[in-house]
Amino acid sequence: MNIRSERLEMTPLTVDDWPLFYTLHNTPEVIAQCFDPVDDAVLQQKFQQRLVPWHKEAEHWQCLVIRQHDTGEAIGVTGMCLSQGRAEVGYLLLPDFYGQGYGTESLQALINWAVSTQGIVSFKAAVTEGNVA
């Protein structure tokens, strides 16, 4: 699976992406916008769950690494989890990439892919209080 947009390429998470995943979940700016901190054992478990190949009947999160086309640099993750035919979508970006429209672009590409290839037509997202972006 490879999802592309104007500036981004999104591919499934691999074991080599642990440093990115760890950094995203341990950076204070990301934590403040998205979730409560978790200990390393719980984080490793979440990472392992996201390595499992995703399919439409899966009950776990699909996790895709977001990379810039021009540099190949990993800037975050995006993905979705299906429940009762509705996909919850979300993303995490490294703070250096905030405010540049990458989150929106990644989600639009993911939603377009989900609609055109998976037939998913219902989506939702949870936003942490205070996350005005």
Automatic annotation (TrEMBL):
Name of one Pfam family that matches: Acetyltransf_3
InterPro entries named among the record's database cross-references: Acyl_CoA_acyltransferase, GNAT_dom, N-acetyltransferase
Superkingdom of source: Bacteria
Limits of the N-acetyltransferase domain: 7-133
Name of protein: GNAT family N-acetyltransferase
Organism: Rheinheimera aquimaris
